Automatic annotation (TrEMBL):
Keywords: Disulfide bond, Glycoprotein, Immunity, Lysosome, Oxidoreductase, Redox-active center, Secreted, Signal. GO terms for molecular function: oxidoreductase activity, acting on a sulfur group of donors, disulfide as acceptor. It comes from Phoxinus phoxinus (Eurasian minnow). This is Gamma-interferon-inducible lysosomal thiol reductase. The keyword Disulfide bond applies. It is an enzyme of class 1 (oxidoreductase). It comes from the Eukaryota. Dimer; disulfide-linked.
């Protein structure tokens, strides 16, 4: 991970310290870094008004489609968790204007239609965690990825689910997620994820399995595992945002 990515990951980690560790202070302004440039008022409160103005000065061309990244993964797979938390989420924080992320929790799971259930590589806890994340993706909309990052970066994915939801998607009640996992909706969401996973061409042989704009190549996968940030910048067909060209190094230093 390069210096810019390490800086971004450090900032992101601070925003979830209550769930994972008490050794890091909260951002002094009370907002997570992903929200610092959301409004002028927040930027002023967090002391990054100038940096946010620089960031907003050059926005990607709305006509050029963003890079579509789809991650086919399992909630308790160590390699999947490492990629999602150390590469995908930090890159998305920096490049969300030029990339979309689609999360498909299923991986090597198997659907058992006659039992109306699923079997998972890491056992029943993973099947349940997969379904929780599928329900979060369905219910939390734009806030779903931060919730799932929070879960996957915690010591216990399942125990952190409720506090992560309360922190990043307080408009979604935990009871609705539980109802989803117990009912037909949760099973339907998992079935859909299974269909998407089984329809991959070439067929997935491992997880995490990553596609870019619907396509998979081993070369892209290798780059994604080491330099995802650079790969997304190179695949974007429009004018590169300042963060890709290094024009906002000053912003990075300020956030660190």
């Amino acid at each position: 991970m390069n210096t810019r990515m390490l800086c971004a990951f450090h900032v992101i980690f601070l925003s979830v310290y209550e769930i994972q560790s008490k050794s890091h202070p909260k951002p002094s302004c009370g907002y997570p870094p992903s929200q610092w440039c959301r409004s002028l008022e927040i930027a002023i409160e967090c002391g990054v008004q100038k940096q946010c103005m620089e960031l907003n000065a050059t926005r990607p061309d709305p006509v050029v489609p963003p890079v579509e990244i789809s991650l086919y993964y399992e909630s308790l797979c160590p390699g999947c968790r490492a990629f999602l938390t150390e590469h995908l989420f930090p890159t998305w924080i920096l490049l969300k204007d030029i990339m979309n992320v689609n999360l498909v929790p299923f991986g090597n799971a198997k659907e058992i239609p006659e039992e109306n259930s699923f079997s998972c590589q890491h056992g029943e806890p993973e099947c349940y965690a997969n379904m929780v994340e599928a329900c979060v993706l369905y219910s939390a909309s734009h806030a779903a990825f931060p919730v799932i990052y929070c879960m996957e970066s915690s010591a216990d994915v399942l125990k952190s689910a409720k506090p992560c939801l309360q922190l990043y998607a307080p408009f979604v009640k935990w009871g609705s997620i539980e109802s989803c996992t117990r009912g037909e909706l949760g099973r339907s969401l998992m079935h859909q994820n299974g269909v998407k996973t089984q329809a991959l061409k070439p067929a997935h042989t491992h997880v995490p399995w990553i596609t870019f704009n619907g396509e998979y190549t081993s070369e892209w996968e290798d780059k994604a595992m080491s330099t995802l940030f650079n790969l997304v910048c190179s695949l974007y067909k429009g004018i590169k945002p300042p963060v890709c060209t290094g024009a906002l190094k000053k912003l990075d230093r300020s956030f660190c």
